[in-house]
Amino acid sequence: MQIERLKIEGLLLIVPTKRFDQRGFFSETYRGDVLAAKGVRAEFVQENHVYSNERGVLRGLHFQTPPRAQGKLVRCTRGAILDVAVDIRSGSPTYGRHVAVELSAKNWRQLWVPPGFAHGYLTLEAHCEVIYKVTDYWAPDCERGIAWDDPTIGIDWGVSITDLILADKDRVNPPISEIGPVFHYERRNS
User: Fold this and answer.
1) pTM of this prediction?
2) Residue 87 pLDDT > 70, yes or no?
3) pLDDT one-digit tens code per residue, 124-139
4) Catalytic hit among 98, 119, 121, 132
5) Residue of 26, 34, 143, 182 with fewest CB within 10 Å of its CB?
6) Which alpha helices (DSSP H) does 38-86 contain, by range?
7) Which one of 62, 98, 119, 185 is the catalytic residue?
8) Which distant-in-sequence residues (6+ apart) come within 8 Å of 62 by Cβ?
9) In a 10 Å sphere around its CB, with 0-12 CB exposed, 13-18 middle and 19+ buried, how is residue 3 labelled?
10) pLDDT tens-digit series, residues 165-177
11) Is-contact 40 5, C-beta < 8 A?
12) Domains of the chain
């Protein structure tokens, strides 16, 4: 399993090893001890499986507030997505900045998104399936979002705005400047 630290502290790109033979392949897609060695001490309590039938489905940017904040381990098992995490930890040197990575069934990469980030993704192909583990249960009363098209964040989704398919709730999320301090940055010593 290869693990790469990304440009924003806390985000990790994970590439599980695939072992092929005449039957197909075997892959350990999650190893708690390997992630713990990289500073991720997560206990996953729920796993979500999402299917999107069209290219251009944008889901996000979502987060849950404390005390129900969620860390997410995201992978795409069918198709391809542009996966985005936005730092919303007040006091962070990278507050308001984002990382975008392609996750696909072909490249087998995963993204670790700790609490303190808004998360979303765009389907780059039709018939995408995304599976992600979370560190706390879905709590509708703690569910929040920020605008996917906030110009201060400046995410290049790579598609025309008119081509996007969005849930109604994602059309009305506020810009990052209106969410106030929800998470606070704590520098890690790792």
Assistant:
1) 0.94
2) yes
3) 999 999 999 999 999 9
4) 132
5) 26
6) none
7) 62
8) 118, 119, 120, 143, 144, 145
9) middle
10) 999 999 999 999 9
11) no
12) 2-18+28-184 (2.60.120.10)
